[in-house]
Known about the structure:
The complex is a heterodimer.
Chain A lengths: L9 E4 L1 E9 L4 H14 L3 E7 L14 E9 L10 E6 L2 H7 L3 E10 L5 H6 L16 E5 L1 H8 L7 H6 L1 H12 L5 H10 L4 H20 L6 E4 L7 E7 H16 L3 E5 L6 H7 L7 E5 L3 H13 L3 E6 L1 H17 L3 E7 L16 H6 L9 E3 L5 H15 L3 E7 H5 L1 E5 L50 E3 L14 H16 L11 E2 L3 E8 L3 H13 L4 E6 L1 E3 L5 H6 L1 E8 L5 H9 L4 E4 L8 H14 L1
Parallel strand pairs in A: 1-8, 2-5, 5-6, 6-7, 10-11, 10-12, 12-13, 13-15, 14-15, 19-20, 19-22, 22-23
Antiparallel strand pairs in A: 2-4, 3-4, 9-16, 14-21, 18-20
Chain B lengths: L72 H15 L6 E5 L14 E4 L5 H11 L4 E7 H7 L1 H10 L4 E6 L34 H7 L4 E6 L3 H13 L4 E6 L11 H4 L4 H4 E4 L6 E2 L4 E6 L2 E6 L17 H8 L9 E8 L5 H16 L4 H5 L4 E4 L2
Parallel strand pairs in B: 1-2, 1-3, 3-4, 4-6, 5-6, 7-11
Antiparallel strand pairs in B: 5-11, 8-9, 9-10
Amino acid sequence: xxxxxxxxxVETLPDATILFAGDSGDGMQLTGTQFTLATAYARNDLATxxxxxxxxxxxxxxxxxxxxxxxxxxxxVVRTPGDEVDLLVAMNPAALKVNLGRVKxxxxxxxxxxxxxxxxxxxxxxxxxxxxxxxxxxxxxxxVKLTSLTxxxxxxxxxxxxxxxxxxxxxALGLSLWLYSRPIEPAEEWIARKFAKKxxxxxANLHVLRHGYYYGETTEEFVVRYDIQPAALRxxxxxxxxxxxxxxxxxxAAGQRSGLPLFYGSYPITPASDVLHELSRYRxxxxxxxxxxxxxxxVGSAIGASFGGSLGxxxxxxxxxxxxxxxxxxxxxTELPLVVLNMQRGGPSTGLxxxxxxxxxxQAYYGRNGEAPCPIIAAxxxxxxxxxxxxxxxxxxxxxxxxxxxxxxxxxxxxxPWPIPDPDKxxxxxxxFEKAPASEDEEAFLPYRRDEExxxxxxxxxxxxxxxxxxxxxxxxHETGNVSYDPENHQFMTNLRAEKVQRVTQEIxxxxxxxxxxxxxxxxxxxxxxxxxxxxVDRANKKGLSVGSVHLRxxxxxxxxxxxxxxxxxxxxxxxxxxxxxxxxxxxEYVLPLLAYNKVKGLPFGPAELLAEFExxxxxx
Amino acid sequence: xxxGKRKPxxxxxxKRKPxxxxxxGKKKPxxxxxxGKKPxxxxxxGGDGAPAGLTxxxxxxxxxxxxxxxxxxxxxxxxxxxxxxxxxxxxxxxVFISGIxxxxxxxxxxxxxxxxxxxGRAPTIATGLKASRPDLDVWIITGDGDxxxxxxxxxxxxxxxxxxxxxxxxxNQIYGLTKGxxxxxxxxxxxxxxTPYGSIDHPFNPVTxxxxxDATFVAxxxxxxxxxxxxxxxxxxxxxxASFVEIYQNCNIFNDGAFFRYTEKDSxxxxxxxxxxEKPMVYANGTRGIKLDGYNLVSFELNENNTVDDCLxxxxxxxxxxxxxxxxxxxxxxxxxFGVFYQVERGTYDDLLTTQTEGIRAKMGKGDLTKLLNxxxxxxxxx
Lengths: 621, 383
């Protein structure tokens, strides 16, 4: 089908941003995912942003029930899901109302006109039909009777009305695939697999998908279709990957490379539950997954597993991290490896569970009783979730410490083309358990004796003859690990635990500056803002502005060359999706007048707003 | 005794004679077991770790035992240390996990692997440990505050999952380490530092709580009967699954005599009945029996007309009987049961996990990382 010669003119674009929006029951996430897959097949670079409500099925037709899936794809490097939308597919009035502001002037809006009737307009609290007044002036509006077309196409399918209406998203998908000259085969194959056991549903969906594709060709609504040439991605083998998938694979790789069994204890919480779902599929890789009774049990079970010689991992989101704080302190005191994944979301309290935010950095830094430092690693792109997760595991074991791993909803659900890594090229991950004493003359075992390079203590797992020892949350005496209330010892051990975390700096590779290597403005970022920051820096450089950026994977300890890099620029800006957290840490650490740019709207940064801030700083100042 | 009617116990410092529990024996309380001993390599280190020839001493550590002189915990520690060599489990395969509270200092005094964790969370750590290391023999040491208050959630989930561990709940009906507040097992009306006008909380009955959580082994014993305690602990160890053992433990500082009614020579016979599987329920030195009257247990005097044959023959496999016996709780006209209330076989969490994992491995084969990374929809960008 994709081999047919197009009869309509094809306009080639460098990139495009599409947003599918509809009711949460309309299957928009699925439509977006399938469009993404087709786009990956078309060899474009891409980035996605699923945006859905917390409710599983919010009342149909309402604005708060709108679910969206945005993606940007292009023939160049694509770093974000896009600022302004070129094509909005709106399945109902509410989806149009919520998302119209994101569509660029002159952009295309495909609306399902069947849904623009009185009831739906009322549900969306719209007093007038936007298709009939001036609301959409200046946009290229394409009216499609998606519901009727679907019903018409499936009238002989034998399916009932509800089932028929459910497949209207396939019509929208087919139409969108046609409009952007995407291959239809990946979606066809997916449908065939998904509904292999329900042939009538499979055939209906295939029929509607193709019907949508043909409709674009035949309807007179579309005078042109678009194409985006393949991107010049680095040669190699790729797959499209979501952050949560990459994260799970990073953990699997850590287990395989270290030879350690993994134990993942977790309690369901948005948006971290998907990590549990992913990992529970990999049980044949020596991974035990445990759905605990609560957040505390989840981290407790992971600590217990680490005591037994597995690598204990727990995953959660902000509220869960708060609950795990005391147990993380136990892992710090007992000096056992532990990886704590925190998929950040909007807060405080329940906050915005399905929206993204970077507001747990200070919690990760300081959210425990006592002086309780631990390394913090942050993932920066969906694909980077893999390597950063691997590193979190490696550091946890090498330094016998909990490591907090920060990602967020945007990274977890976002996807991008991912060059498949060669496991042999990952950092080596050796593990040395304490062995049984060679002879009876050996001195007594000292569970808190230190490795000179890392300051880590030996890992002696139960079952090892002659290494019986007791751990606990009470302060430990240096070397013996006995309970100690001695003032000098407490000071010494506090310093030692801090120094151990500081030693992790020796694991951090030199910072790579994106854009200008020195000049007027350095942008320091961490976490999921990387794409937006680097895209904005690229645009700034093109405009002749002297801007560079560094992105921190290791947020604690900080890279030892950060001060030097900051010194090469006149000013330093720290943009964050919080109220200013890293910037506070950096100001305290380096006593520099750093600038902050902050947003907490539950949405990621777009390059345009960052570029505007760069320009404002560089022209006003 | 009916709830709420018990007299408030003597406040701390009251002039009742401190009682030495049997396990403490004649030893001076200030000299804890093993005190002053130099650290040395345990026997068997470097060898095959065979438990043969281990003695109580081998399970003692060089740490000073820091419980108050006269505390019931000494008796429990001594009993466990005596029992250990008889169980035939190598020391290095044995792990004691505790939470927080007086009882939870226990692991420091056992020369095995151990962890003194955080308040209420010992069952979570034990679950992770046992799930990942089913070869280990895991004991949880906890108290009434630790596992019935802050850790109540973990306790019930450990029991329903039936993780193959032994959980020893030292019940002294008081918060000791925080210096004398009422606990979730304190009787109503209790005068403590935090309840100067008397507690209005209804107390937990740990045995029926455990039964309610579908525990597969539920027992009760007491610090002042080390022989009984040892046998119950042995049975708990033999049981495959989560073994819940409530141990009445005297806190001679903040709640002295809380269980004297059941534990002292003069009052024990009339107030404690020892449950034995398939044995008639007899107590008061063989002078009284217990029988079923409808759904209730009633006490009667044994004589020519009412003989042992009229007594209820206890069946520890009956969930119904366990429930009824469990409700004999602080009754003024009935004795309180000790022993194994209930024992039944059910798949353990660790076994089920192992079996499932083996099944997955057999079906899917050992995971191949390179293959996994390259799975899904992939494409190649040529040079």
